C-alpha cells in the first residue's frame, strides 16, 4: 500500500484534532446566588466538541469534566445541584459538590468557590489560558445578578435570577384594532373580554375597574378559564379598591396570582408593570393603561390619555402566552389570598365628546416589545429614525445618581441631525414638582430649539375638557412605526421592570395615532407650552406679574 499524499493527511488531521477556536467559552456566571453559602452559584460553558483538556479555575480550585465528555449544548455547572434547584426550579448539568446522585459530578480539585463581589476565573485548554473573567472589571457582581457574555461584552442587559430571555420576533397580524383612552378603549377591551369563549390570561399592574371585573367574572361563569397576574406591591401598596376587585374575581372562579418579593428573595422584576391580555389564543390587547376607571373610562366619559391595540394573530398570542407562562412559573408567584375589602362602587368622570372611535387595519407587521428582554427595540427605533419622531409620555426621568437619560439623549441627537421632533409630557404636579422632571425637560428641549441646536419642540399637557392626565407611553417614528406600550422613560422601566408593548409597522396606524397626537398638541385636550430660555414655568411668571401689578396699584393709591 502506497503512502498518502501530504494534503490528504493534513485534511484528516483537521477532522480528528479539535480546534481551540471552535471550542468553548464561559458565557454566563452567577457568583452570588440566593441560597445560604451560595450553593446555587454557577457558570455556563458554551461551545461544541470534546471537553477533554478544558478546565475552569479560580486560582484556589479547578473544575473539569469526566474523560470522554463532549457537548454541543451550553453546560450549567453549579456548586450544589440541590441549592441550584431550590433557586431556579431546574437541575444543572453538573455539580461541584455532590448533593443529588442523578446529577453528574464535575471533577474538582482544591476549593472552587466564586467570591461574591471580587474574584476571577480562567478557562484553560491544555493548560493554556483561553478566557479570563474578573469582577469587578468585566462586570460588577450583585446578589441575584446573572452576568451574560454576548456580542463580545458582559452584561449587555441587566439580568436577575429567574428572568426570561425572549428574543425579538416580527409577525404579520390578520388585523389590528387601534383605540385610545378615553374615547374608545372601553368598547374594545370590554368587547374582547365579552367575546372570549375558552381561555383568557391577563397581566396587569393594577386592576380596580368594577365594570371590567364584572365582565371578566361573567367570562369565568360561562366556563372560560381565566388567569390573572397582578403586581403584589404597587407603589403605595395595593389599594382597598383593588383588593375588593380581586376578592370578587377569586370568588367568581378566576385564578388570581400576585408577583411579590420576600426577605429571602426579591422578585425577579422591580415591578410587574405590564398591561396586556390574551383571549382564545388569538386576540392580544396591549395598552398603556391599567384596568382602572380612569385608564379605561366608561363610554363617553373623561379619563387618561392612553393608546392601545387589539392584535388578531395566533402567532402574537402565542408569543405573549410564552411570556405569561414564564412569569407565572417563577419562584415569586403567590395565589392571591382574599381579604374583607368590599367590591368598589361604579365610578365615572364627566361626559365628553368622542373624537376618536376605534379603527381596524389589516395585514399589519407587529413586533412585541418585552422589558427587560427586548426593550432595546425602542432606542433602536429612535436611532434608525430618518424624518420625524413624535413622543407622548407620562414622564421622562434622569437615571440614578443624576446620570443622563440615554433615550432622551437619542431623541435630542435625532433633533440635532435635522429630524423633526415633537415631545409631549404630562403636566400634573407630581411630574413637575422636582428639579429635573417634565417641565425642566420641556424647557430644555425648547431652549435648544431656540438656539438652533435641534429641530424639536416640546409641550406639557394639563388636565382639560376630556383628559384627566397624560398616562401614555407611545411614540411614532417616520409616520410608519408606532409604539404602544407600558414602558416609561426612566431607568427601571426598560431595565428592571416587566413591561409589555408592540411596535406596529403601518402607515395607517401611524396616521391614526398622529391624528390623536395633533389633537392633543393643538390644545383641545389641554396643554401648556414652556418656551422660557431659563426653563421658567410661564404660569408662575404670570402669577408674579399679577402680584407686581397689584403692588404697583396699591402704591399709586397710597400716593
From TrEMBL:
Coiled-coil segments: none
EC number(s) recorded for this UniProt protein: 2.7.8.-
Keywords annotated in UniProt: Hydrolase, Lipid degradation, Lipid metabolism, Membrane, Transferase, Transmembrane, Transmembrane helix
Alphabetized GO MF terms: RNA endonuclease activity producing 5'-phosphomonoesters, hydrolytic mechanism; transferase activity
InterPro entries for the chain: PLD-like_dom, PLD_domain, PLipase_D/transphosphatidylase
Pfam family, one: PLDc_2
EC category: transferase
Positions of transmembrane segments: 538-556
Domain PLD phosphodiesterase: 268-295, 466-493
Gene Ontology biological process terms from the UniProt entry: lipid catabolic process
PANTHER family, sorted: CARDIOLIPIN HYDROLASE (PTHR43856), MITOCHONDRIAL CARDIOLIPIN HYDROLASE (PTHR43856:SF1)
Protein name: Cardiolipin synthase B
Source species: Methanorbis furvi
Amino acid at each position: 500500500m502506497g503512502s498518502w499524499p501530504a494534503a490528504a493527511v493534513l485534511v484528516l488531521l483537521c477532522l480528528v484534532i479539535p480546534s481551540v477556536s471552535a471550542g468553548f467559552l464561559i458565557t454566563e456566571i452567577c457568583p452570588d446566588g440566593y441560597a445560604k453559602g451560595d450553593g446555587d452559584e454557577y457558570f455556563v460553558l458554551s461551545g461544541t466538541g470534546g471537553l477533554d483538556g478544558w478546565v475552569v479555575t479560580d486560582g484556589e480550585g479547578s473544575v473539569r469534566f469526566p474523560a470522554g465528555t463532549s457537548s454541543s449544548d451550553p453546560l450549567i455547572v453549579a456548586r450544589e445541584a440541590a441549592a441550584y434547584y431550590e433557586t431556579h426550579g431546574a437541575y444543572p448539568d453538573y455539580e461541584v459538590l455532590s448533593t443529588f446522585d442523578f446529577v453528574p459530578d464535575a471533577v474538582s480539585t482544591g476549593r472552587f468557590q466564586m467570591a461574591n463581589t471580587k474574584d476571577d476565573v480562567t478557562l484553560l485548554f491544555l493548560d493554556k489560558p483561553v478566557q479570563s473573567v474578573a469582577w469587578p472589571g468585566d462586570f460588577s457582581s450583585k446578589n441575584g445578578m446573572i452576568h451574560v457574555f454576548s456580542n463580545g461584552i458582559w452584561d449587555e442587559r441587566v439580568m436577575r435570577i429567574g428572568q426570561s430571555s425572549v428574543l425579538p420576533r416580527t409577525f404579520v397580524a390578520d388585523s389590528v384594532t387601534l383605540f385610545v383612552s378615553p374615547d374608545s378603549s372601553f368598547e374594545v377591551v370590554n368587547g374582547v373580554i365579552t367575546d372570549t369563549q375558552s381561555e383568557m390570561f391577563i397581566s396587569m399592574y393594577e386592576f380596580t375597574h368594577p365594570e371590567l371585573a364584572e365582565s371578566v367574572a361573567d367570562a369565568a361563569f360561562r366556563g372560560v378559564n381565566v388567569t390573572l397576574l397582578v403586581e403584589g406591591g404597587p407603589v403605595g401598596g395595593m389599594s382597598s379598591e383593588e383588593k375588593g376587585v380581586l376578592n370578587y374575581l377569586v370568588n367568581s372562579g378566576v385564578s388570581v396570582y400576585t408577583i411579590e418579593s420576600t426577605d429571602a428573595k426579591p422578585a425577579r422584576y422591580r415591578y410587574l408593570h405590564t398591561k396586556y391580555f390574551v383571549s382564545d389564543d388569538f386576540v392580544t390587547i396591549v395598552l398603556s393603561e391599567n384596568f382602572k376607571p380612569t385608564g379605561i373610562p366608561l363610554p363617553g366619559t373623561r379619563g387618561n390619555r392612553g393608546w392601545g391595540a387589539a392584535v388578531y394573530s395566533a402567532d402574537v398570542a402565542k408569543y405573549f402566552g410564552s411570556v405569561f407562562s414564564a412569569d407565572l412559573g417563577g419562584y415569586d408567584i403567590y395565589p392571591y389570598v382574599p381579604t374583607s375589602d368590599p367590591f368598589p362602587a361604579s365610578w365615572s368622570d364627566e361626559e365628553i365628546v368622542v373624537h376618536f372611535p376605534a379603527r381596524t387595519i389589516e395585514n399589519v407587521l407587529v413586533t412585541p416589545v418585552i422589558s427587560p428582554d427586548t426593550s432595546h427595540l425602542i432606542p433602536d427605533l429612535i436611532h434608525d429614525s430618518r424624518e420625524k419622531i413624535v413622543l407622548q409620555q407620562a414622564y421622562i426621568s434622569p437615571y440614578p445618581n443624576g446620570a443622563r437619560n440615554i433615550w432622551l439623549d437619542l431623541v435630542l441627537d435625532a433633533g440635532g441631525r435635522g429630524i423633526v421632533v415633537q415631545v409631549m409630557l404630562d403636566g400634573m404636579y407630581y411630574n413637575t414638582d422636582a428639579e429635573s422632571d417634565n417641565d425642566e425637560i420641556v424647557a430644555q428641549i425648547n431652549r435648544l430649539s431656540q438656539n438652533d441646536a435641534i429641530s424639536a419642540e416640546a409641550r406639557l399637557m394639563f388636565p382639560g375638557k376630556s383628559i384627566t392626565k397624560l398616562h401614555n407611553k407611545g411614540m411614532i417614528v417616520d409616520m410608519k412605526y408606532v409604539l404602544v406600550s407600558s414602558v416609561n422613560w426612566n431607568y427601571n422601566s426598560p431595565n428592571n421592570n416587566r413591561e409589555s408593548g408592540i411596535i406596529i409597522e403601518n402607515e395607517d396606524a401611524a396616521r391614526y395615532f398622529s391624528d390623536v397626537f395633533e389633537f392633543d398638541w393643538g390644545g383641545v385636550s389641554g396643554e401648556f407650552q414652556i418656551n422660557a430660555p431659563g426653563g421658567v414655568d410661564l404660569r408662575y411668571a404670570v402669577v408674579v406679574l399679577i402680584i407686581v401689578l397689584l403692588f404697583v396699584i396699591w402704591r399709586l393709591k397710597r400716593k
